[in-house]
Amino acid sequence: MAGRPYRIAGLDWAVLWDEAAGTHVYVRDADIVMLGGRILFAGRAAELPAEYASLPADIDGSGLMAMPGLVDVHSHPATEPMNRGLFDELGSPGLYYSSLYEYMPVFRSDAASKPDCARVAYAEMLLSGVTTVVDLSTPWAGWLDVAAESGLRVCVAPMFRSASWTTTNGHTVTYSWDEAAGRRALAQALDLIDAAAAHGCGRLTGMVAPAQIDTCTAELLQDSFAAAARRGVPWQIHAAQSIVEFHEITRRHGVTPVQWLDRLGVLAPHSIVGHGIFLDDHPSTPWHTKTDLAVLAGRDAAIAHCPTVFARRGYALRDFGRYRAAGVRIGIGTDTYPHTMLDDLRLAAYLGRIQAGAPDAASTRAVFEAATV
Asked: Where do runs of H (alpha helix) occur along 232-340?
């Protein structure tokens, strides 16, 4: 089969993108022809070009459906299998029941466990239809090779920051700053991103990922954003992800997290905000402005929406349909355990409808597009 196209013949169903209609369509009795990672043909078997008609059926598609691979835009494979599920019902009451500051630092995978954690997470993603994943992890030995062996297209996003957080009393968060360490971590991350692009498997790419808006200096955010632009890669940051963070940024700067990112000039079409929940009009974080959603839309920045991890804590994006109607692009992530992408798609639809009080606020088509287009 080396050197010739690969054919899946006679699929009962195929979910294909119709460029003219701008939507996915269902096709019966379909063939798909591929070569070297490229799709040469996808459509009705009756319309198969003559040049491919003589190809043998490498896979008999009867009784099967083919669809686009899902894109997981936000995950932490090297850590989540070791902590999620252990403290999902635990949180600091004095910190709005967040587990970020008191519990998460306790449940950390050690260096020896990270490869196995990643393999478990990658396998779960593959089983739920994911073919491309953004892996947000702190750098660990062997990361690129483990990512390559998974068979996934992995966007390596090594996280870095200028500060760490902790709480000693359960109601205040303190930050320990080391700006020089943040600079070194950025340099290491950029080296790893360059190595991913050069990896022999051809399926690794990179993303610049300052860890959190409240743990990075303004200069680190701006310089990392510029580095991403120079490399032509995306830039993603955790922001508007907790009530504590919202209040911390407004205390420091007098503006919301989204407005602070905008003031720094780091919101753009290649920017992704994970998780973008606590805006200035969210009921949990009311502010005197009501402009955050418009700012995101105006800058064409995207949101990494991870419904499961927040639903387990009693919070939700408000709401999927409202963001899309405002012009904000949304992708879906599995910042949880297990990394079952289909569960996150289902929950994105259910929560979107509940939050909006309307069944058409988060249609199956819209949620599927968020994970594919």
From this structure: 243-253, 257-264, 292-299, 307-311, 320-326
pLDDT tens column, 253-270? 999 999 999 999 999 999
Flag whether pLDDT at 1 surpasses 60: no
Long-range contacts of 65-69 (CB under 8 A, 24+ apart): 65/11, 65/12, 65/13, 65/14, 65/15, 66/8, 66/11, 66/13, 66/14, 66/15, 66/30, 66/32, 67/14, 67/15, 67/129, 68/15, 68/17, 68/24, 68/372, 69/129, 69/130, 69/131, 69/132, 69/372
As for how many domains the chain has, the answer is 2
pTM above 0.85, yes or no: yes
Domain shared by 50 and 83, yes or no: no
- pLDDT band of residue 118 (cuts 50, 70, 90) is very high
Domain boundary pick from 18, 33, 66? 66
The residue range of the domain holding 268 is 70-370
Check pLDDT > 70 for residue 356.
yes
Same domain, yes or no: 318 and 189: yes
Dist CA 209 CA 272 (whole Å) = 9
Q: How far, in Å, CA of 26 to CA of 157, rounded?
A: 34
At a CB cut-off of 8 Å and minimum separation 6, what does 110 contact? none
Closest CA to 193 of 227, 163, 166, 150: 227
Residue 102 has pLDDT above 80, yes or no: no
| Tokens 């089983």 found at | 127
What is the residue-averaged pLDDT of the chain? 95
Tokens found for residue 257: 């997290």
- Judged by DSSP in three states, 354 sits in helix
The reply to whether 37 and 146 lie within a common domain is: no
- Binned at pLDDT 50, 70 and 90, residue 2 comes out as low
Q: In terms of domains, do 129 and 58 share one?
A: no
CATH number for the domain harbouring residue 37:
2.30.40.10
